[in-house]
Amino acid sequence: MKLDHIDTPAALIDIPRMQKNIARMQGHMNTLGVAFRPHVKTTKCIDVVRAQIAAGARGITVSTLKEAEAFFAAGVSDILYAVSIAPSKLPRALALRRQGCDLKLVVDNPTAAAAIAAFADQHGETFDVWIEVDTDGHRSGITPEQDTLLEVGRILHENGVKVGGVMTHAGSSYELHTPEALAALAEQERAGCVRAAERLRDAGIPCPAVSVGSTPTALAAEQLDGVTEVRAGVYVFFDLVMHNVGVCALEDIALSVLATVIGHQADKGWAILDAGWMAMSRDRGTSKQPHDFGYGQPCLLNGTPLGGFMVSGANQEHGILSSSEEGAHVDDIAQRFPIGMKLRILPNHACATGAQFPEYHAVSADGNSVEWRRFQGW
Amino acid sequence: MKLDHIDTPAALIDIPRMQKNIARMQGHMNTLGVAFRPHVKTTKCIDVVRAQIAAGARGITVSTLKEAEAFFAAGVSDILYAVSIAPSKLPRALALRRQGCDLKLVVDNPTAAAAIAAFADQHGETFDVWIEVDTDGHRSGITPEQDTLLEVGRILHENGVKVGGVMTHAGSSYELHTPEALAALAEQERAGCVRAAERLRDAGIPCPAVSVGSTPTALAAEQLDGVTEVRAGVYVFFDLVMHNVGVCALEDIALSVLATVIGHQADKGWAILDAGWMAMSRDRGTSKQPHDFGYGQPCLLNGTPLGGFMVSGANQEHGILSSSEEGAHVDDIAQRFPIGMKLRILPNHACATGAQFPEYHAVSADGNSVEWRRFQGW
């Protein structure tokens, strides 16, 4: 289907841009000599994941057991569930492993480790558990020097549960915007995770995998000694937040929302779009960054960004397109953006915007599109 | 299913609270002597809509043609599509009317009105078009005194299209928080919409319906002379934004997200939940209101709000529960919120949070729940 015939709002994937993003990340990982395990929470779409695996990815990372179940059903077996597991979710994890899924779990506390050990013993299962390491203080995990690290390792190892490795995610990289700061955080992420692995090994606990990553640190890493694999998610599409972080150009962003002009408030200099926050998501991730893109950057249908304009406001199904200069008035808004005109809006955060849609329209270089399903829920 | 057995995160509807909210709004409409047409964009769930209709609602309001198609298929025929229509969507609207759906369209500009008239003529269809009136300057619509109002009316009427009425939505009511201000805006909304209808009638254009509404103005309205019907959506669940507006108690909020404690950062005073922004949505609607609830208000499983705590931060699948006092540290966080503990989180914005889930778990007074599907997309 041609773009002109797709009903709006719709989530578009620019396939050539996506393939370029995939090749860029995989090439960097190959150069650094580490395996790459993409985080599929960004897309929840088997068509995208197949392209990542075709380019060289080894296994995937998921953020929910529903992702693990869906991608295992689609033929992917090597899966890291990268959220510290709630003990009540262990039966679902067991069911996946019993079906032959090489599912790895994550834990960052003694209570859940003990629950895994008890459940594993009860069911005659070793599991494969990775310990989450906190290398930047932004969320969960155990810092490399904490005693809890060895405590968790011992609870697992001494009760017959396989300790498969350590993993960390330096998500505070999203708050940076210089190459130097990103390279420094990438090194901090690497060094902290390697240090945690060494402490475990020194204590007699095997720790084969050392897994690090976030899109900005993965792209900024200059060497990854001691690391076995890297994880990243949003790089496959990129978005305006990543553009502000400095790891992609606007022209690299592969996800956009197709929208139609449905009205004007000429005295305010507004064009009204049929893409509101239900389509763009409520993510305002650029609001604290160097360039605030509002609810998104409008582009022509061919992908050219319309400098000087932004989606400045959003209701559930209405977007407001106006000047991106504070207080500036666009006198000829109705002439520039007539009723029925279609635009592509680059999103702040590809993970959040994609999640608003049950499907993507994946657009080839020739302008034809096919539908790629994505799924929702837990 | 009992709450304890529902996997997390999950969207819960408290059925007794929902029924109370439905009865409250319908009772107020009955007292004011107007029809009530609930906006189903909040729930996108036929089970909820059936409860609204059983209580006395006449017809529904939708924000997308997909809602119109889904609810018509489920047996609802009187449907107002309350977004100014993009001309490219007219074939879908025609298909619905040809199947017997009493679908009403909305328009707020001469270009789309002319496109409707041309399309109607081409297909031998009169349609039923309501003109959107702008009574508070917050979004789309034509102000009551603008010449464009009569121009749009004439384009429709003189070309054989039925002008079914006028409609307005005083969405700026979400920014208010005193009964006096809400009552004043409700009167402004009423008077502006009635004035627009009178101008059309004075010009010889029939205008049977006069439709107004938003949850806050609907509840605050003291008299609705000249109005034929009211629309409101979020009242069915309410949320923290509505609580800040002053139209509901925390104990009225019928939607919550069931979450599990999966970790701690004790030195920071944090408990980590398995409900992040993918579950709560990125809506931070309370951030500019008198009380900022972060990403949500934690409650015990029985619904009792946990004063002094909030979900202060969110990653995609991680929520951070901490003190709601800036800078305060909870020393015994791991004791108060042990691993595996389940909580209910009240959301900022029920429309946004509900949209993150493919289903609700609707919980009866006896604690048993059933699954109610909702749909996604356009």
Automatic annotation (TrEMBL), chains A, B:
Enzyme Commission code(s) on record: 4.3.1.27
Named cofactor requirement(s): pyridoxal 5'-phosphate; Zn(2+)
GO biological process: D-serine catabolic process
Key words of the record: Lyase, Metal-binding, Pyridoxal phosphate, Zinc
InterPro entries documented for this protein: Ala_racemase_N, D-amino_acid_metab_enzyme, D-ser_dehydrat-like_dom, D-ser_dehydrat-like_sf, PLP-binding_barrel
Domain D-serine dehydratase-like: 254-364
Keyword Metal-binding annotated: yes
Record's protein name: D-threo-3-hydroxyaspartate dehydratase
Gene name linked to the record: dthadh
